[in-house]
Amino acid sequence: MVLVKVDQLLLSNLGFAVLLKGVEDERTLPIIIGGAESQAIALCINRVQAPRPLTHDLLKNVLDFLECRLMKVEISDLKEGTFFANLTLERDGRRMEMDARPSDSIALALRANVPIYVAERVMEEAGRVFPEAEVVAEGEGGEVEQTTGQKKEARKKALSPVEILQADLRKAVEEERYEDAAKLRDEIERLKKAHHGN
């Protein structure tokens, strides 16, 4: 297993991509994830506290209440362009594994402050060593390309929750999902007010 950390959260042509960089390994694993999961990850990266528990916060709270401890997360497999993950849980001295999506697993691992691992076979198949001049992320069919300047800027700051919601809002308007767009607009306003209130 390769120990990784969340290196960047980027917007790709197919959606959001999270880059998992090896802690003692030069390879990076790019995974395309959904908007809700990218928002959950961005909130943790940017240390933004939501006024009410979001789904991953709720799951962490439930695990704590049940005295069930998340020990680690593993990106365990890659089949036909889809990544698979396992949660390792411990309760009353008994360990168990649970199947999960990588995006949810990463969001939960950040909240529980537990290590994230990638199976060596997965890293060999989908991991990349990105040259300084360009980043090309491939995961579940997506691509993210950046010039050196863009890469440096992305490393300075991960996408904020508001930026993620704004991208979702643009997509909702383009797809004429106006009810979703209204909800996203309200959430953007709420986050902006919460940020200015701090």
CATH superfamily of the largest domain: Bifunctional nuclease domain
Q: What coarse outline follows from CA principal-axis ratios?
A: globular
If classified by CATH, what would the architecture of the largest domain be? Roll
CATH topology of the largest domain: Bifunctional nuclease domain
Question: Average pLDDT, to the nearest integer?
Answer: 79
Order of helices and strands: EEEHHEEEHEHEEHHH
- Describe the sheet with the most strands: 7 strands, mixed
How far do the termini sit from each other?
40 Å
- Give the spatial strand order of the biggest sheet: 3-2-1-7-4-5-6
Radius of gyration: 17 Å
Give the structural class: alpha+beta
Strand content: 25-35%
Describe the protein's architecture and organization.
- With about 200 residues, the chain is of the alpha+beta class.
- The chain has 2 domains: about 1-145, Bifunctional nuclease domain, CATH 3.10.690; about 160-198, no CATH class.
- It is built from 7 helices and 9 strands.
- The strands form 2 sheets. It has a 7-stranded mixed beta sheet with strand order 3-2-1-7-4-5-6.
- Strand 8 (about 135-140) and strand 9 form a beta hairpin.
- Helix 1 (about 35-45) packs parallel to helix 3 (about 100-110).
- The protein is globular and about 45 Å long.
